[in-house]
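User: Here's a chain of 130 residues. Predict its fold as C-alpha cells.
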Amino acid sequence: MASTSYIAPPGAIIQLEIKPIFDALEPREKLYAHHMARAAWHGSRIIMRQVSPESTDIFDFIMDLYHACSGDWNILTKNIDPTKLEAFLDYAAMFLCNLGNHYVSAQHQLGGQNPPLSSARHNTHDISTG
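Assistant: Prediction complete.
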C-alpha cells in the first residue's frame, strides 16, 4: 500500500538559479532551449497520464487556482486557513516537480485520498470574484 504525505521531504523543494546560465547562451542556443522547454511542457500531460489517471485533473486544478488568484497565493488566505494553504503549496510544488501525485517510486503518493484544499476545488469561482 502506498504511504501518504502532504509535506515534501526536507530539501526536496529547491529553486534553480538558471538566469545567469541562460543569459550566457548564444542566441541560437537560447532558441533551442526555448523550443525544448515548449516541447517538454506540451509533453507533460503524457507523463502525468502515465503517473496516474487523476494527475491531469490535479494539474488542471492547480493551474486553475493559480490563474484565479493571478499568482498571488496570499489572496486565498481570505477564504482558507494559511496553514492549509502552505500545505497545499508544498503539495503543489511536489506535484509539479514530479508531474504527478507519485514521487520517487510508486511506493509514495502525494496527498492520497484527501489532498490539502480538496474541498476548495468546487469554490475556485469564488476566489476570482472575491
